[in-house]
Write a structure and sequence with these properties.
Shape: elongated
Structural class: alpha+beta
CATH superfamily of the largest domain: Transferase(Phosphotransferase) domain 1
Distance between the termini: 59 Å
CATH architecture of the largest domain: Orthogonal Bundle
Oligomer: single chain
CATH class of the largest domain: Mainly Alpha
Strand order of the largest sheet: 1-2-3-4-6-5
Length: about 675
């Protein structure tokens, strides 16, 4: 389906500057933009459906406006804010790449006639920079610590209370649709594409990735299983999806997987993790009850249940006395080496000296227990919070806690101040290594993001020395100079590394040489396969046309050997052009079978080949049979070369392919003329 697109640095209505692509769904594409008027980041979703046939664009626009209407009516700190901005104008859009080319009639890249577009529709939303809860859980081994998960769940429940009070049903609560505000560590509910206050409507996903298992009644596994409830969802359906979301985050069981869903229906979360609080386990099981009447009836009731749950501590690390303790009354925190700390000032340097042990004991809650016993209740709370944030990454938790105690940050050093990818062809990829190293104290870890969708790299690293491969993919980019930056958000602070690359225009020589070289290779291969057995077994095979070959030895083995050499050369040529070792190694098995078959049935293959080629090419080559094999090989090679440059065949560079064919046929003519004169 043709789609509308924007380039990097495009300005939408001269206000929103496109910085990067965030993702694309069925009907909309989301861009990370800069609001030039307010100088703030925003997420701008465009209705990208271009095809007017079958009412597809009209149907998508109806849903797009519905989502904008919902967001405009739902103002809440835990619901993403947004507003609808339609624009009228005169855009001339390529139906292949979806880009606008003003004052032109055809696309310069695809030579396609441009389509006139008179309106474009945008949903301008708050930019939520943090990960969604599925990404957060995946980073932490598939689950989130109970205290943090309940905090995020309370935020979502508060949003549901607001939604339900206004007569809406969200209908697609799941971890992917809940993102975190990084600066406040709070959950924000997204995706109102299928929300409704009346009859159900189907739609695509708001956000940066395609929905998983989503249908009209919500996402399979999270939505209730009753067909009647799927047809007519209400507030209790959202409560069910909230419960399944919490079950997933607490246990790493995914309800979209049938085996996991069966296990979740027959077990409670505490069966998978006995350390979960019993009250939380009970609340989750009530929310996912099969009968709607047995669940909390709406978001407001769910909020009340969560408040009752958190009124008493979920788990107390240790009783905290309010009495003032003297230095002699405080039990020291003792390490295995015998070193000990009697206060926070003494503990801080020991965290670096005995890092592995300190990380382990922080993850077990021993440090927060000791802090609470010394009266450092705020630091104990902070340690518990950090431990919950990094449940499966004790070294990262220790570094965050050490910085909370006032220890200096690590010192980040990168191998190159700027990544220069140089000049690339339009379909090329190039990978450079960015090395990061900690030159200071502590533990270095972080996230790396690129400002341009053509640049990809690992999302995170963990270690004081790391190699981060950074790949620039020039595929489908227009010729020109590209520049941006990699953002490194690390335990050492925030840094940026600029990158730049130049994308060359399409080459006319590449398709010409591809067709010519493959045609020449086919010509040589055809001639060798037919001529060499005749030269080494002249008593049985001639360079003239054959009707049959009376003896198997030595013609068939010779034919198989020559066929093997030609096959080896052609596979090597193809492997070099594709830069694929796997293709070359695969010849070890399949090539052996082909050579054995040629060696056994060589007589029959020679006779059948002559019989097939003689009526077609004998007017051109006369009695010289290898010439026909050369002719057939040239045509096959040139055809294969043309297929390898198929994209060029759809553009004005088809002329270079035609010239390659002409050159290959001229080369064949010269070769056959030389043979004729020699004979």
């Amino acid at each position: 389906m043709p789609q509308l697109h924007h380039r990097q640095n495009d300005r939408i209505q001269n206000r929103y500057e496109v910085r990067k692509l965030l993702g694309s769904g069925a009907f909309g594409t989301v861009y990370g933009c800069r609001d030039l008027e307010l100088d703030v980041p925003v997420a701008v979703k465009e209705l990208h459906v271009l095809d007017e046939s079958g009412g597809e664009r009209e149907h998508a626009l109806k849903q797009f406006r519905a989502e904008a209407t919902h967001l405009s009516k739902l103002r809440h700190p835990h619901i993403v804010s947004g507003h609808y901005e339609p624009f009228s104008g005169d855009w001339r859009v390529c139906p292949v790449c979806g880009l606008d080319f003003p004052a032109q009639n055809r696309c310069p890249d695809h030579n396609a006639p441009l389509v006139a577009v008179s309106s474009r529709h945008y949903l301008v939303m708050e930019y939520i920079a943090g990960p969604d809860l599925l990404q957060l859980a995946t980073q932490n081994g598939g689950r989130i610590e109970a205290e943090a998960a309940l905090d995020y769940g309370a935020d979502v429940a508060s949003a549901l209370a607001h939604i339900h009070a206004r007569g809406f049903v969200h209908r697609d609560i799941k971890p992917e649709n809940i993102r975190l505000r990084a600066e406040a560590d709070e959950a924000v509910l997204l995706d109102f594409g299928i929300a409704t206050s009346g009859p159900a409507a189907s739609g695509d996903r708001y956000g940066t990735q395609v929905q998983r298992h989503t249908q009209g009644g919500g996402t399979i596994g999270y939505a209730p299983e009753s067909p009647s409830e799927r047809r007519s969802p209400d507030a209790r359906s959202d409560v069910h999806a909230w419960g399944m979301t919490m079950y997933h985050l607490l246990t790493a069981r995914d309800p979209t997987e049938p085996n996991d869903l069966r296990a979740m229906r027959s077990h409670t979360p505490r069966d998978f993790d006995p350390h979960l609080p019993a009250a939380l386990d009970k609340l989750v099981m009530e929310c996912i009850a099969l009968e709607p009447a047995n669940r909390p009836q709406n978001g407001a009731e769910l909020v009340q249940r969560i408040e009752n749950l958190t009124a008493a501590p979920v788990a107390a690390s240790a009783p905290v006395s309010t009495a003032v303790l003297t230095q002699s009354e405080i039990e020291p925190f003792v390490f295995r080496s015998g070193h000990y700390a009697r206060n926070v000032a003494e503990l801080a340097p020991l965290l670096d000296e005995f890092r592995d042990e300190a990380a382990l004991r922080l993850s077990r809650g021993e440090i927060e227990h000791w802090l609470a016993s010394t009266g450092e209740t705020e630091l104990a709370r902070r340690a518990a919070e950090i431990r919950g944030r990094y449940p499966a990454r004790p070294k990262q938790a220790l570094e965050a806690f050490a910085q909370a105690l006032g220890l200096p940050r690590p010192i980040l050093e990168v191998s190159s101040p700027t990544l220069r990818f140089g000049s690339l062809s339009p379909d090329a990829q190039k990978t450079l290594d960015l090395r990061v190293e900690n030159r200071g104290r502590g533990h270095l870890f972080g996230l790396v993001r690129a400002s341009h969708p053509a640049v990809s790299t690992y999302g995170e690293w963990d270690g004081n020395r790391a190699r981060l491969p950074v790949t620039f993919d020039a595929n489908r980019l227009r010729p020109g100079h590209y520049a941006g930056e990699l953002s490194l958000d690390s335990s050492a602070g925030q840094f940026s590394v600029p990158f730049e690359a130049d994308v060359r225009g399409p080459s006319w020589l590449a398709p010409f040489w591809t067709v010519l070289l493959y045609g020449a290779a086919g010509m040589v291969a055809g001639g060798l396969i037919r001529a060499l057995p005749a030269l080494y077994a002249p008593q049985q095979v001639s360079l003239g046309w054959l009707n049959q070959i009376p003896k198997w030895w030595p013609v068939a083995p010779l034919f198989g050997g020559v066929f093997g050499l030609v096959l080896f050369a052609l596979v090597t040529l193809e492997s070099l052009s594709r830069r694929s070792c796997a293709l070359w190694l695969s010849m070890g098995f399949f090539g052996t079978l082909a050579v054995l078959g040629a060696g056994i049935f060589g007589n029959e293959l020679l006779t059948a080949g002559d019989a097939a080629l003689r009526p077609i090419f004998s007017p051109n080559v006369g009695p010289f049979a290898p010439g026909a094999w050369m002719f057939a090989g040239t045509l096959a090679g040139a055809l294969w070369g043309s297929l390898r440059r198929f994209k060029d065949a759809l553009s004005i560079r088809i002329g270079a392919i035609a010239l390659g064919w002409g050159a290959a046929l001229l080369l064949l003519y010269a070769a056959l003329s030389g043979v004729a004169s020699a004979r």
